[in-house]
Structures are given as structure tokens and as C-alpha cells.
Design a protein that fits this description.
heterodimer, A: Ubiquitin-like (UB roll), 5-stranded mixed beta sheet, 1 helix, 8% helix, globular, B: alpha/beta, FAD/NAD(P)-binding domain, D-Amino Acid Oxidase, Chain A, domain 2, 2 domains, 6-stranded mixed beta sheet, 26% strand
């Protein structure tokens, strides 16, 4: 399965959440906060805190810890609050 | 040391009880506030923070809302803390010619009662709300509508009252009254008797059971409302925007689920989506058709919301009297007992005038509005 993360192609194994894929790729942060542009990544890891948000195929606010990628997904950093593309 | 008992015990620390405590303490009275639970954790913590005139037909509740609107600025000054007051204005939109006609007539009647209700064209509505559906055929702008954060304002009212010597006692339940020659002499609590000159029942949807415990029953019923909260968005919804049929739902007594669309942003960036009305007693379980209907109608009003995630839903019970008017005044059977409840979904906005009116009546001052329509001794409320 191949997805792109911030424009870079990544081959990913099945049954791995986007958060796991990102951490395995060496990323700690993939979102910035609304007001102060502070970096954010996984905090609770169980879908509760809504901190690990990113944009998948144009849809913002996707929780990386809850999403299993599909082949061809376009994943990117979320900059503050965004509307769907 | 001499023990000083309160002049007034306010039972209930929601926004209405808090506003009463603030106004009573400002008038120099010694006040104690009781709440069986934490402070301000009931109805006032489960709403949206409406300060609205737009949804009210000409009549006593609108008069109370207009009086409140005049009182809020000075009251907020006295509180001296940020409660996210936002005079954002309301925008009511109609998506069918029939609804547009009814809305225009409603707005005209409100103007005669002192409401600033300005009919605008669909183009002007889209200028004000760029993400609004293109299906709008009529709209009215209400510059007087505002919003505040209900938990912050409740806490600020209690803190201001406390700064004047008011005692706050969360976790203390009022169980009954002691009477001397028929008049209130003390509140019986689960932490002992509390002698006092007067008692204010400000228990919101639970005011009925409190009144029964006080042997002075009144009819107040709960109505459940659910609100959806979206993820934080960039500025997307600027006003308090609602569908013209909201007006019909507020004034209606129908038992089954009613949903009309109310969409607004908060200071935190989330969008709140209401409003549902269910008559299900104190059943707090969530029926899936309620959030489904709320979401569907919000998307019809703001299509951009279709792909926006909902973080959570919360709900609460709004107190209403059979005639849908607030209850503010003395109990006709027990001198020293007062009731302030029945504000349904409008208690946050009406709190300023309610606290003031209760205090005017209790101290014998000139009432801020005519209290007659809100009297306890009226058909359907007092058996």
C-alpha cells in the first residue's frame, strides 16, 4: 500500500494506524495549534483528545490514532483549524 | 460571637439563582446560596448561552428579554471578568416563500414591541454569512442578539455575590421549610436547619420537586435539548443563525421531538448546532435520531458543515411552565417563599432582569418590568 505524506510517497504495511505510520517515519508532530502555531501529535492515542489531527484526502480533523490508511491516501499536516477542501 | 443568619437563602446555583444572589447582595441583603450538587452544574452548564430577542413574540417574555438586554452591560461591568460576551447579532433565514412571509410578519410585529428587526435580501444575508445555503429566500437581521459563555457568567455572578459576603454552599440539599405562623422561618437541609427571612426556589427544571418538598407545589416541567459540538473551525459562522421555523418550536407544546436549526460559533472556534426539544421527563439517554436530525438540518443551512466532524454532543433539561412564561414572584401560600424558574431555553439571557425583578419585588422597590404575567399564582402553575 502506498500513500503520500506531505507530498512524500510512503509504503505502509496493513493494519497500522496513520499515527503509527507517522511515528515509524520519524514524525513527532503533524498539526499546529490554532492560535500560536504550536506543534501537536499523538497525546492520548485512543481517540479522545483530538490532538493528533491531520488532513486526509482534503478532509481536516482526522484523528491519526483512529485512522487506518487506504491505498492512495493523500495525507498532510493540518495548519490550525481548516475547513474541508 | 453572634451567629448571623442570612436574610435570604437562594436554593439553586444556576444562572438564575446566581443572578438573584448577585442582585440581592447588591441591594445589601445577606444571602446564602445552596445547591445539592456542584455550583452551576445543571441546566446552566448544558446550554448555548443565548441572549436573544429575535426568537420572542411580542408579550411579557419579550419585555423581560428587552429589560435584560438593557441591564447586561452594567451587570457585566460589575462582574469585571471576561464571560465571552459577543454582541454578534442574530440572522434568521427562511428557505421557502411561505416561511419568508411568516418571518416578515413576525419581524414586523416584533418591531412594534421595540425589537430592532431588519429585513434584508438574500444577497445581504450571504454577505453577512458567506457559507450560508443559496436556498435562502428571506432573512431578518437582529443586531440586538448576543451570546455569552453560560458557565463563566454563572461563576462570575456567584463570585461577585460572594465578594459582598454571600455564602456559597454546594453539596447542601434543601429538604423542606420550617414555618412560624405560616411564614418561612428556616430552610431544613441535610446539613441542619438554616434560619432565614426568605427562601428563593431557583432550581430550574427541578423547581417543581423543591416546591413540593417545601409543601408549596408549582408546575414546572423539564424539556430535554441536545447540542452538537464540531471541531474548531476557522471563522465560518459569524452570527447566531437560525431557521425561521425555530420560532414556532419555541412557542409550541407538542410532545414529540422538535428540531429546528440554530448554528453559532464559540470563542473557542467550535460550532454549536442546536436545537432539539424533547418531552421525555428527566431521561438523559441520547436517541440517535436527535443528533442525526440536528446534523442534517445544520448541513442544509451551512453545506460546508457536511464534512466537518462532530466532537461531541451534550444535553440538558430546560424548565418550562405550562404557559411557557417564566415564574418570578412570591408564593401565594407561604409568606417568605419565592420562586424564580420556568425560563426554558432562555434563562441565560433573561437572568439579568430576573435577578433584578426578584430583588425589586422582595425589597419593595419599583419593579423593573410588570411582574403580573410572571406571578406564581396563575392558572396551570399553582394548583
Amino acid at each position: 500500500m502506498r500513500i503520500t505524506i506531505d507530498g512524500e510517497p510512503h509504503d505502509v504495511p496493513p493494519n497500522r494506524t496513520l499515527a503509527a505510520v507517522l511515528i515509524a517515519a520519524g514524525r513527532q508532530s503533524w498539526r499546529t495549534t490554532r492560535t500560536n502555531d504550536r506543534p501537536r501529535g499523538v497525546f492520548c492515542g485512543i481517540g479522545v483528545c483530538f490532538d493528533c489531527l491531520l488532513v486526509v484526502n482534503g478532509v481536516p480533523d482526522v484523528r491519526a490514532c483512529q485512522r487506518f490508511p487506504a491505498d492512495g491516501d493523500v495525507v498532510r499536516t493540518q495548519h490550525g483549524a481548516e475547513l474541508p477542501e | 460571637m453572634r451567629v448571623r443568619y442570612p436574610d435570604v437563602v437562594v436554593v439553586g446555583s444556576g444562572v438564575i439563582g446566581a443572578a438573584c444572589a448577585e442582585a440581592l447582595s447588591a441591594a445589601g441583603l445577606r444571602v446564602t446560596v445552596l445547591d445539592r450538587g456542584p455550583l452551576g452544574a445543571g441546566t446552566s452548564a448544558a446550554g448555548e448561552g443565548n441572549v436573544l430577542v429575535s426568537d420572542k413574540e411580542p408579550g411579557p417574555e419579550l419585555d423581560l428579554a428587552l429589560a435584560s438586554l438593557l441591564l447586561w452591560p452594567a451587570l457585566l461591568d460589575r462582574l469585571g471578568v471576561d464571560v465571552e460576551w459577543d454582541a454578534k447579532g442574530g440572522l434568521v433565514v427562511a428557505t421557502s416563500p411561505d416561511a419568508a412571509k411568516a418571518l416578515a410578519e413576525f419581524a414586523a410585529s416584533q418591531r412594534t414591541a421595540g425589537v430592532d428587526a431588519r429585513p434584508i435580501t438574500p444577497t445581504e444575508a450571504l454577505d453577512r454569512e458567506p457559507h450560508l445555503t443559496r436556498a435562502v429566500v428571506g432573512a431578518v437581521h437582529y443586531p440586538q442578539d448576543a451570546q455569552l459563555q453560560p458557565v463563566l457568567v454563572t461563576k462570575a455572578l456567584l463570585a461577585t455575590a460572594a465578594s459582598r459576603g454571600t455564602t456559597l454552599r454546594p453539596g447542601v440539599r434543601a429538604l423542606g421549610l420550617r414555618r412560624t405562623a405560616g411564614a418561612v422561618s428556616a430552610v431544613v437541609t441535610d446539613d441542619g436547619d438554616l434560619p432565614c427571612g426568605a427562601v428563593v426556589n431557583a432550581c430550574g427544571p427541578w423547581a417543581g420537586e423543591t416546591a413540593t418538598a417545601f409543601d408549596a407545589p408549582i408546575t414546572v416541567l423539564p424539556r430535554r435539548g441536545v447540542v452538537l459540538v464540531t471541531a474548531a473551525l476557522p471563522p465560518t459562522v459569524r452570527h447566531k443563525v437560525y431557521d425561521a421555523d425555530y420560532v414556532g418550536a419555541v412557542a409550541s407544546g407538542d410532545a414529540d421531538l422538535q428540531v429546528s436549526t440554530v448554528v453559532e460559533s464559540t470563542a473557542g472556534g467550535t460550532v454549536l448546532i442546536g436545537s432539539s426539544r424533547e418531552r421525555v421527563g428527566f431521561d438523559a439517554s441520547l436517541r440517535v435520531e436527535v443528533p442525526r436530525a440536528l446534523a442534517k438540518r445544520a448541513v442544509a443551512l451551512f453545506p460546508v458543515l457536511a464534512d466537518v466532524p462532530v466532537l461531541r454532543a451534550y444535553g440538558g433539561f430546560r424548565p418550562y411552565a405550562p404557559d411557557h412564561l417564566p415564574i418570578i414572584g412570591p408564593d401565594p401560600r407561604t409568606p417568605g417563599l419565592w420562586h424564580t424558574t420556568g425560563h426554558e431555553g432562555a434563562g441565560i439571557g433573561l437572568a439579568a432582569a430576573t435577578g433584578r425583578l426578584l430583588t425589586d419585588l422582595l425589597t419593595g422597590a419599583e419593579p423593573v418590568v410588570d411582574p403580573t404575567p410572571f406571578r406564581v399564582d396563575r392558572p396551570g402553575v399553582c394548583p
